[in-house]
Design goal:
Chain lengths: 110, 402
């Protein structure tokens, strides 16, 4: 199973970040999540960045979804960039970000 | 016992003495004492009515749908009435993650600058030259100086610097929350902006149960609400054909499944999704401003430009549009925005109508909803039921309130 992301469906609500942290550490914080919002708010440009175990970093930006070992340009919290975070473990088979996403921007495949 | 969904801390910053202190946040024993609105009032009573209080709600940053709200309380108006502005987007949640539930600001800075709040620290950064630039450039500069594009900024503009009652604070570039001239409060205190970065964490009484219950509630809402059309789902004014043609994407505040914010592009094709222009347009959620712009005779594109320029100047757009003659052009309105002395003379016009305030007919209900940390616009649409939210909230914070 893997996560698929359609960045154009994203509404930038941030629920995926906090859903990830509640599963990982049982607290609410955007700092430990494996999935983070990528935002350039003044330009209204936003999408998601996901750290996976198998495929490295997935950049889900409005232009499309690409995989990259380097997180160059991935944005995310300056204090804790995506490369310093733990990779997604799919919440043991029932990903909470998928459950929480109100617009089905994040789905599972396989 | 843990304080769930709270940091348990109030930060107090004395701008005159350049000194930061803190006090513990008393545990709420009743719904009234849990309301951020009521706590902000109590803090103003304690520290003086000239203070500015930044507040977060009990449920802010929880999984309860649209739990995005914080608020700012300014000094009382000339008639002794309270002045409150909601904080939406990610400002309320980010503030809570700085480690403070409330921040009280008092005094006046000797040299103008901005407040920088993060990691349980409140610091004043001297930046007198910031008064020479508009609100958008202030946000850009703070993010560049502090090296983090995720910093959230409540920015003042030239109108607020001059202490104009019809000023408007912008939150991360956009206006629409502050309809009470809170920019004048910041101007009086020598504050060009308030910046914060939330890197903390919050405990929840029952993490799994809270998540499951909240997502269930959200799904029920989504099913009931149907397809989302951004601002047009909340206001008829956004259904106009020329407005729909320039809408790019709809954007949510934290935790909102049914956004009311629609970004309109005026500097590039609205269908352009690549990152090209750095300032392609404006995020609309100020319903009365858009209504007044159309009443003035502006088309959607011109209205967007006027609202954008009002935000940069820190000017309340309904005031500016009321001061402009009907059939005004966006150019003539822009001249009015930059003509501060004339604008001062135009303040005999009606007070600007509330934006989020008008979500509820009963302003007590509005304050109750906002005081919990919930977006009034969203909750008025899905039906704000104090009893239902109350039991939900009690489970979240792990105790019963009277």
């Amino acid at each position: 199973m893997k996560l698929t992301i359609d960045p154009l469906k994203c509404i930038c609500c941030g629920l995926c970040e906090s859903a990830c942290s509640i599963n990982r550490d049982s607290v609410l914080t955007p700092m430990t999540s494996s999935i983070i919002l990528h935002i350039d708010d003044k330009a209204n440009y936003f999408g998601l960045v996901l750290k996976t175990k198998a495929g490295g970093v997935v950049l889900a930006k409005p232009e499309g979804v690409t995989a990259a070992q380097q997180a160059s340009g991935s944005g995310g919290p300056g204090a804790k960039p995506i490369l310093l975070r733990e990779a997604c473990d799919l919440c043991g088979g029932k990903p909470k970000c998928v459950e929480a996403c109100p617009v089905h921007c994040i789905c599972t495949e396989g | 016992m843990s304080l769930y969904l709270r940091n348990g801390k109030v930060g107090i910053y004395d701008l005159t003495k350049d000194d930061s202190t803190e006090q513990p946040l008393e545990e709420a024993v009743s719904w009234e004492s849990a309301s951020s609105d009521m706590i902000a009032r109590r803090l103003a009573d304690e520290y003086g009515q000239d203070t500015l209080v930044l507040a977060t709600g009990l449920l802010t940053y929880s999984f309860v749908p649209a739990a995005a709200a914080g608020l700012i309380r300014g000094r009382l108006d000339a008639d002794g009435r309270e002045r409150i502005a909601p904080l939406l987007g990610f400002a309320g949640t980010e503030l809570k993650l700085t480690g403070f539930d409330f921040v009280v600001l008092k005094g006046k800075a000797e040299t103008p600058g901005y407040l920088w709040i993060r990691d349980g620290i409140i610091e004043f950064v001297r930046a007198p030259d910031m008064l020479k630039i508009d609100s958008w450039k202030r946000i850009d500069r703070i993010r560049a100086d502090q090296g983090d594009n995720e910093i959230h900024v409540i920015a003042n503009g030239p109108w607020g610097d001059k202490g104009l009652a019809r000023s408007q604070l912008v939150v991360d570039y956009w206006g629409g929350e502050d309809k009470v001239g809170m920019g004048a409060d910041l101007g009086r205190m020598g504050l060009a902006a308030i910046a914060f970065r939330g890197m903390g964490e919050l405990d929840v009484a029952e993490p799994e149960g809270h998540f499951e219950d909240a997502i269930l509630l959200m799904r029920e809402h989504i099913e009931r609400l149907g397809k989302n059309y951004g601002l047009a789902s909340y206001a008829k004014v956004a259904e106009r054909e020329d407005f729909r043609k320039i809408v790019h994407r709809h954007v949510a505040c934290y935790g909102c499944p049914f956004p009311c914010r629609s970004f309109a592009k005026v500097e590039e094709d609205p269908k352009e999704f690549r990152l090209l222009s750095k300032e392609p347009g404006y995020l609309h959620f100020d319903i009365p401003a858009l209504e007044r712009a159309f009443d003035t005779g502006l088309d959607a594109r011109s209205a967007t430009k006027v609202l954008m320029n009002c935000a940069k100047a820190g000017a309340e757009p309904c005031t500016v549009l009321s001061a402009a003659a009907t059939a005004a052009t966006s150019e003539s309105i822009d001249a009015l925005i930059s003509d501060i002395p004339r604008a001062i003379n135009s303040t005999n016009i009606d007070n600007p109508p509330g934006n989020f305030e008008r979500s509820f007919e009963d302003q007590k209900e509005y304050r109750r909803c906002l005081g919990l940390g919930l977006c009034p616009r969203y909750w008025s649409k899905v039906g704000f039921d104090t009893a239902a939210i109350g039991s939900f909230a009690e489970a979240t914070v792990g105790r019963t309130l009277q």
